[in-house]
């Protein structure tokens, strides 16, 4: 039932929960919803803010969610707007848009794990948005909880006051009532003139099969009303407000949302592609409010090829990607043909986890068996004519003679490790061409190492290698810092002189010989013998740097059939014909899809 929301701003608090993965954001959100009576604990599903099937399956929060809670104290009713945000570095842009809609942040740290890489990254992001930070130590019910030490670590690494740290157990609910009072008393009320021209920030969106795009907004100034004509300033599109309201935690329509409030709009928008996170909403008429700062098109950091493992599923894969893009506009895809794998798509993702999640969702929601090529990054190349281009595919890199400047994306990595693993982690980062930028002691025999590392050296397996060389205790967080020139080259693979596009890679010139030899050796072992010698070469431009030879077949495979019964010969030739279907011809050489797979999916 629609209700007029006439909340005065002084009784509104907008805050989010930020933390390292698994430190308890979603569980604490459940407790806050319960303690304010927003949900009763009879009907609730745990982690009710994680509603994407994959979130519940993987136990991680992928999409931000907003919920309005009513909290009564001393006869006054407060509206507490909670935004639960993804903690993973891949979704940093969504975290920053959620922070921009809040005045406060609960900085949650596990009472046993202590400060981790994403704790630091998210705390710095909250400070950049001038949010009031409420330090919270969670899981104090754990046997090995060490809240005093963790409070010390937080002071050393984040400058928080140990006496200000709220100590809670999101599992048992201990300390949650005190935390609610701290939110009311510490987080400032929002400002903004409800009578000014409407200016609202889009901080999230999701797709409802019946109502289309649901746009999450924070009203910065003015008032948005049901039936009003509004404009998305960056997208340039205008829409009528069909429904608006808040989530508590399901949708509760109301007549208006005033400056300071967080809620949702429904405008019969059929595709999430028309809703851009970070966009500004204002009136559709003349003199709209100015666009809010901080809007940024999602930066795809990682690309890979996705191909149906069986050629017939191409159209199914296309339909599945289109369906997924409606609900997750942050990844992009375009058709690509590969002489190795046939028809497929080149996809761009926010990061490695995002790529994994999209691939899993595709395979779950459309049960297509996918082949994924090794992920790579976007390079910035300036040619001899001074023209700079972003290159997403290795085969599009120009020949060496036409390259003036070859730049690669660099990320700043924060690695938090127990002191005994500092040596192995430093060695690993140096092997990945990292430049050390910092070494901070965090107390409790832990340290934070900061390295600038090429993104191409991070995306494939640096996170796993850090986990394995620190027995799982190390944590990694990174953020883009820019592009830097490097001595890079395109390494090509030729079969009897014909370049195999799908096998071209970008690598450091110093690595090219090693990688060329390894790929040539692997491909040689996978290519079947022909009636002639097959030369497998690795080359940089016209310079061959490695060669392997597949010797010619010495005898005719059907020879042993002569004199044998005709059916056996026919069966053998039929088998050969079957085998041919899965072959890709490169010049006069036939290479099996298995051979390409062996090379394409290898991270080397
Ligand atoms: N013992 C104990 N376990 C907790 C507490 N809070 C959360 N947990 C557990 O810690 C794990 C992670 O909790 P989540 O709430 O999913 O953590 P999160 O930060 O939302 O994780 P992401 O959504 O992946 O970022 C779950 O198994 C929770 O049951 C607590 O106060 N005490």
Please give a structural write-up.
Residues 10-191 form the Tr-type G domain. GO terms for molecular function: GTP binding; GTPase activity; ribosome binding; translation elongation factor activity. This protein has an eight-stranded antiparallel beta sheet with strand order 11-10-16-7-8-15-12-13. A six-stranded mixed beta sheet has the order 2-3-1-4-5-6, with helices on both faces. Strands 21, 22, 23, 24, 25 and 26 form a six-stranded antiparallel beta sheet that branches. A hairpin with a 4-residue loop joins strand 10 and strand 11 (237-240). Helix content is 25%, strand content 35%. The chain has five domains: 6-186, 3-Layer(aba) Sandwich (Rossmann fold); 199-283, Translation factors (Elongation Factor Tu (Ef-tu), domain 3, Beta Barrel), CATH 2.40.30.10; 302-374, Alpha-Beta Plaits (2-Layer Sandwich), CATH 3.30.70; 380-485, Alpha-Beta Plaits, CATH 3.30.70; 490-600, Alpha-Beta Plaits (2-Layer Sandwich). The N and C termini lie far apart (59 Å). By secondary structure, the protein is of the alpha+beta class. It has 13 helices and 33 strands. Helix 9 packs antiparallel against helix 10 (462-469) and helix 11 (509-526) packs antiparallel against helix 13. It is globular. Guanosine-5'-triphosphate (GTP) binds at residues 19, 21-27, 47, 59-61, 87, 138-139, 141-142, 169-171.
